[in-house]
Specification:
The protein has 447 residues and is mainly alpha-helical. The protein has a domain of 147 residues. 74% of the residues lie in helices and 1% in strands. It has 13 helices and two strands; from the N terminus they run αααββαααααααααα. Helix 1 runs antiparallel to helix 2, helix 1 packs parallel to helix 3 and helix 5 runs parallel beside helix 7. It starts with 9 loop residues before the first helix and ends with a helix.
């Protein structure tokens, strides 16, 4: 079951956010191709140095995480919590599109310098910062409207249904995003004036980035519910709501850590501990229950759910092996972030029907999900192997042709990255093939 109870205009709003989300993940895949090839022995020597690699990496991360995830969240919020979109909803969508476009085009608009901060690397460019700021304001407008108006839009609907569970989860995710934006704004005001450059951005995004992950976890759990609800009997709505509230709670109360100096080691350590001890346990518990329910019901899990879970487990396991700033870190977060992306991709095929679009064949959808999921898994293994050998993260590294574990790992990483990119591009083809007729029809109606 998908978040529903839609009203006039909400489908058009969701359609707009889905177009933006699809465009973002497609554009990010083009930068991913450059990143992967820049790390492959032999091929990497053809690219113009580490600065090129870092620019491509920065744009890939911003488009594939910040823009894609929040645009897809916009789809879910629009369908689940917005009955009649107002001017601010449409303004937020338009502003988000402008912001994403400015970020993507910023390298062509003037001098840039990549600053590889954790969670959100940036380009030291006024055009990039204008785009990043515009997108942030758009997200703020959307979540503020969702948190303020979500309950009113669906007053009188059954709170005990799975739709009620979905709506609570969507409001919790929006609340966590608001908490992250609050921490971001307060941190910006509290950072000491003598801090600058990479260190300033590292401190700025650290707390907000850790909190933001809890919104992604909540949205991933909702996607899992959407992918499994037709295949297994679900527990009571009250029990599901409690689980979602427990999962989101650390992100909602995390702004209390602002009592610490944002530039201090204690601040960095507190948010790291918060992530280590409260972010992954509940998803694994929920996944274990879902797998047990599938086994008892004699049904096979949906491909989007099973592959998402495999990536999550692999990402958590590799995270436990991290010792230093090597590509093991990259392998870890590609697993956890890839798990969210795969769940969203799987849910997209069901959402298309809710938007009045057709759906791709089941076989085509499963091929796409397997291409992406297995590609990410191969890439993780390649990154992990190189990391064990000490390959540094955020750098192209040694791209000469040689023999050894690191060279083999980079080749595996290149193969996996290529498969994952093909999977993303196939996702683009499958989704746009269904979206285009619906978008064209709405353009004709409003033209």
């Amino acid at each position: 079951m998908l978040p529903s109870a839609r009203g006039a205009g909400s489908e058009s709003l969701a359609l707009g956010w889905l177009v933006l989300a699809t465009a973002a993940v497609a554009a990010s895949s083009l930068f991913a191709i450059l990143i992967v090839f820049a790390r492959v022995p032999g091929l990497g020597a053809l690219f113009p140095g580490t600065e090129f690699y870092r620019v491509a990496l920065t744009l890939h991360v911003n488009l594939s995480q910040w823009v894609w995830f929040m645009a897809f969240a916009g789809v879910l919020w629009s369908l689940g919590l917005v009955r009649t979109p107002g001017r601010w909803h449409w303004f937020a969508l338009a502003l988000a599109a402008v912001g994403a476009l400015l970020m993507a085009l910023s390298p062509a608009l003037g001098a840039i310098r990549p600053l590889m901060a954790n969670y959100l690397p940036v380009l030291d460019s006024p055009w990039f910062f204008a785009g990043l700021g515009a997108y942030g304001v758009a997200v703020l407008l959307m979540v503020a409207r969702v948190v303020h108006g979500g309950a009113e839009n669906h007053r009188g609907s059954s709170a005990d249904s799975l739709s009620g569970v979905m709506r609570l989860g969507l409001r919790l995710a929006a609340g966590v995003v608001l908490a992250a934006l609050l921490v971001f704004a307060v941190t910006m005001m509290l950072l000491p004036a003598e801090l600058s450059g990479l260190a300033w951005f590292e401190a700025l995004f650290w707390g907000a980035g850790h909190i933001w992950q809890f919104s992604l976890t909540t949205l991933m759990l909702l996607a899992w519910l959407g992918l499994t609800s037709a295949r297994i009997p679900l527990p009571s709505a009250t029990g599901l709501k409690r689980l979602l509230a427990i999962g989101a709670a650390p992100g909602l109360i995390a702004p209390l850590l602002l009592v610490l100096d944002p530039a201090s080691p204690a601040y960095f350590g507190a948010f790291t501990s918060l992530m280590q001890w409260t972010s992954w346990q509940l998803p694994l518990v929920c996944a274990g229950w879902m797998l047990l329910a599938h086994w008892r019901a004699g049904t096979a899990p949906a491909t989007g759910f099973s592959l998402s879970l495999i990536l999550l487990v692999a990402g958590i396991a590799l995270g436990a092996m991290i010792d230093g700033q090597t590509t093991l870190v990259t392998a870890h977060y590609h697993g956890t972030i890839g798990a969210v992306t795969l769940a969203f991709m799987g849910l997209t095929y069901g959402i298309l029907g809710c938007l009045g679009c057709g759906s791709p064949s089941r076989r085509a959808a499963e091929w796409q999900l397997r291409l992406y999921g297995n590609g990410i898994l191969l890439m993780m293994f390649g990154l992990a192997g190189a990391g064990v050998m000490g390959a540094p993260r955020k750098m192209a590294g040694n791209v000469g042709v040689g023999f050894g574990v690191e060279t083999l790992s980079r080749i595996v990483m290149g193969l996996g990255g290529t498969l994952a990119t093909i999977g993303i591009l196939y996702f683009l083809v499958l989704v746009l093939r269904q979206l285009w007729p619906a978008v064209s029809l709405r353009m004709v109606r409003h033209g």
